Amino acid sequence: MKNIHNDYINILKIFSFVVFIIVIYFLAYLIKFNNPSDIDLLSRECFSFIKDYWALSHIILFFIVTYIYPKRYIFIMLCGILWELIEHIFRYIIDRIHHKRVLYDYWHSKLDNHIKKRIKNKKNLNYDNWWYGRPEDILYNSIGIILALIARSILKY
Fold it and tell me: How far is the C-alpha of 26 from the C-alpha of 38, rounded, in Å?
């Protein structure tokens, strides 16, 4: 029983570390470029059947974690679904905060046309290209899990 508990704790540690790295990556881009979604290297197209490098990172992460803890694949999948929900919430919160800041700037100061264009163009009002919680990421997580389980079963024999 203690071994099962340790597995769950270790899986959560791995995912927590990855979330920490993602937040650091996001903040570094935010500080350097002001809008990380404009220049994010991982958002570039990867292969024709994989949307971008973020998708590839999902496959790789879930492959590694499932390969290490194959008996916990359901828990690993649930962690992936939970993270996508959290990203969706982040998107909503960041959109609201950023939207209010831009509107405040617009109404309380005489800003250039750049701010006025940002208000008219809703796409540039938020960082939804970063924290977007794509439903297809759950599919990429599943692909990583399935590939790890197949690899373990092949290597077992």
Answer: 12
For the entire predicted model, the pTM comes to 0.74
Distance (Å, whole) CA 149 – CA 25: 30
Tokens 């999948």 label which residue? Answer: 77
- Tally the domains of the chain: 1
Instruction: Round to whole Å and give the CA distance between 40 and 83.
Output: 20
The whole-number pLDDT of residue 124 equals: 42
Instruction: Report the C-alpha gap between 145 and 56 in whole angstroms.
Output: 13
Structure tokens at 132: 């977007």
What is the span of the domain harbouring residue 120?
A: 2-156
pLDDT tens across 23-63, in order?
888 787 777 766 655 567 777 787 777 878 889 999 999 99
Please list the residues that pair with 132 across neighbouring strands: none
